[in-house]
């Protein structure tokens, strides 16, 4: 009876994944999508355990408890500014789990061949399992080490673009060919036990090295793309692991994550006017320290003066960036917006696809402050409105509002779609200093005639604006 119902139950769990991902595509339904996907995963775990039959549940339950505790603590304690790092780590753990599944199958296959030759194809149970085991080990290991490097770049442990010489692309390509060739050689003929063990370790270490050298050379400006790509790779590795263990639900869920992550990667690339090849093989951006020079027309203002400007406006657009996340200023931004709306001012929030350090970072940040969904406007929709906008308040954003992308062919970000805030009547930029963003270049917006700078922590500056606006009332 169970064997007959199990395929239908797997289909129901897979449907929950599909509907969950569908709901995640919109801010309004994202929370519901997350719950649906989580319910699907719970169902998948239960169904898989039932499918396994009589097994020792102690290690499995122990893993579930430990993982649940770690996940709950991370979800509760991690600040919104650390969300990109947490996502990078979770991607890495997914890749590591898939690699460990492949390793366990390899070791089980050769366990009884000590001192003799190992013929992997029959030992693993077929050519398809052998091929997917190699791919799961390779892709999972690359995802794990690459995600750790991305985590360290995002939290500032690693700064700048390392291994930036062009020869690294050739070396990485050679390494990929060697690893795939070695994996294929393991499958086509019997190997002595010791050499088979060494070959597995070479594939493992080489794959880890490939993840490090590939991610280490990618500049900070491309981190949103890297995060979504690693998410896709974790799904691909999971799908390969599903073929290894012959679990259809793991194949389906891994394929969904891999496909959706790849689609998101393409969206991120388009938002930056770059191809995936350019992200992976050409340096762009990076942390370069403070660059205050090169500006000749910067006009400094104060929260009091900006509040006075708000007396004579009918429309205000907030542009959130990573500085807003660092300052945890989303709630203060909402408070100021409420005051402006009470005065009859139209308020919107302009969202760039790659603002922050991971896809959707600003949407999640503002949703936490209960900003109405209808006020969150994507770049393509709001750009035509800037010409008729009275006041734009840029909160910690940098590269995504840099006019150099539209008017300076020599700029490395030329051609990148940006929020055209420079077209508004007045632009207020709230920033700690004149330091560059992740692209490491000067922001032409700071020098515009219609731009004024308010230096300081975004939350503190906004609190001062709230105080001044209340006094004006």
Total count of domains: 3
Stretches where pLDDT is under 50 for at least 5 consecutive residues are 286-292
* Overall helicity: 55-70%
Oligomer: single chain
Shape estimate: elongated
Mean pLDDT: 87
The percentage of residues in β strands lies in 5-15%
Main sheet: strand order: 5-4-3-6-7-8
Q: What's the total helix number?
A: 18
Major β-sheet annotation: 6 strands, parallel
What is the rounded distance between the termini? Answer: 71 Å
What is the N-to-C order of secondary-structure elements (H for helix, E for strand)?
HHHHEHHHEHHHHHEHHEHEHEHEEH
**Secondary structure: number of strands:** 8
Radius of gyration, rounded? 25 Å
Structural class: alpha/beta
Question: Topology, pairings included?
Answer:
Elements: H1 2-24, H2 30-52, H3 57-77, H4 83-110, E1 117-118, H5 120-124, H6 127-154, H7 167-188, E2 191-192, H8 193-216, H9 223-245, H10 248-271, H11 276-281, H12 303-309, E3 315-320, H13 322-327, H14 330-342, E4 346-351, H15 361-368, E5 376-378, H16 379-382, E6 391-395, H17 404-407, E7 426-431, E8 451-455, H18 458-472
Parallel strand pairs: 3-4, 3-6, 4-5, 6-7, 7-8
Antiparallel strand pairs: 1-2
Helix pairs in contact: 1-2, 1-10, 4-6, 4-8, 4-9, 6-7, 6-8, 6-9, 7-8, 9-10, 12-18, 14-18
Explain what the structure shows.
The chain has 473 residues and is an alpha/beta fold. It has 3 domains: 1-77; 81-281, no CATH class; 303-472, TPP-binding domain (Rossmann fold, 3-Layer(aba) Sandwich). It has helices at 2-24, 30-52, 57-77, 83-110, 120-124, 127-154, 167-188, 193-216, 223-245, 248-271, 276-281, 303-309, 322-327, 330-342, 361-368, 379-382, 404-407, 458-472, and strands at 117-118, 191-192, 315-320, 346-351, 376-378, 391-395, 426-431, 451-455. Helix 17 links the parallel strand 6 and strand 7.
């Amino acid at each position: 009876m169970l064997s007959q119902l199990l395929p239908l139950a797997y289909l129901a769990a897979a449907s929950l994944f599909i509907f969950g991902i569908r709901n995640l595509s919109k801010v309004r339904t994202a929370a519901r999508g997350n719950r649906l996907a989580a319910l699907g995963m719970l169902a998948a775990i239960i169904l898989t355990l039932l499918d396994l039959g009589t097994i020792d549940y102690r290690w499995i339950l122990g893993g579930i408890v430990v993982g649940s505790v770690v996940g709950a603590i991370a979800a509760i304690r991690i600040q919104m500014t650390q969300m990109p790092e947490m996502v990078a780590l979770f991607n890495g753990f997914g890749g590591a789990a898939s690699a460990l599944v492949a390793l366990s199958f390899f070791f089980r296959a050769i366990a009884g061949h000590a001192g003799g030759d190992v013929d992997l194809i029959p030992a693993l149970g077929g050519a398809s399992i052998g091929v997917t085991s190699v791919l799961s080990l390779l892709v999972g290991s690359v995802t794990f080490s690459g995600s750790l490097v991305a985590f360290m770049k995002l939290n500032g442990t690693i700064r700048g673009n390392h291994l930036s010489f062009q020869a690294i692309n050739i070396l990485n390509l050679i390494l990929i060919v060697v690893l795939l060739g070695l994996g294929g050689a393991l499958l086509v003929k019997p190997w002595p036990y010791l050499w088979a063990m060494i070959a597995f370790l070479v594939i493992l270490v080489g794959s880890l090295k490939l993840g490090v050298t590939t991610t280490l050379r990618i500049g900070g400006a491309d981190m949103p793309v890297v995060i979504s790509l690693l998410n896709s790779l974790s799904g691909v590795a999971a799908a390969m692991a599903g073929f290894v263990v012959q679990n259809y639900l793991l194949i389906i869920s891994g394929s969904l994550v891999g496909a959706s992550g790849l689609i998101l990667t393409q969206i991120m690339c388009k938002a930056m006017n770059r191809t995936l090849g350019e992200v992976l093989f050409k340096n762009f951006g990076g942390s370069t320290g403070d660059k205050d020079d090169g500006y000749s027309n910067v006009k400094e203002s104060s929260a009091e003066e900006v509040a006075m400007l708000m007396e004579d406006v009918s429309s205000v657009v907030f542009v959130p960036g990573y500085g807003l996340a660092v300052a945890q200023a989303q709630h203060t931004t909402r408070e100021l917006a409420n005051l402006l709306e009470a005065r009859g001012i139209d308020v919107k929030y302009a969202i760039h696809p790659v603002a922050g350090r991971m896809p959707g970072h600003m949407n999640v940040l503002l949703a936490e402050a209960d900003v109405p969904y209808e006020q969150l406007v994507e770049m393509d929709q709001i750009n035509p409105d800037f010409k008729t906008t009275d006041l734009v308040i840029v909160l910690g954003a940098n590269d995504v509002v840099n006019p150099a992308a539209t008017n300076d062919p020599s700029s490395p970000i030329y051609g990148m779609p940006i929020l055209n805030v420079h077209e508004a009547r007045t632009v207020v930029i709230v920033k700690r200093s004149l330091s560059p963003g992740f692209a490491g270049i000067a922001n032409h917006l700071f020098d515009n005639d219609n731009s004024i700078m308010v230096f300081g922590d975004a939350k503190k500056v906004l609190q001062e604006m709230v105080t001044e606006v209340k006094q004006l009332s």
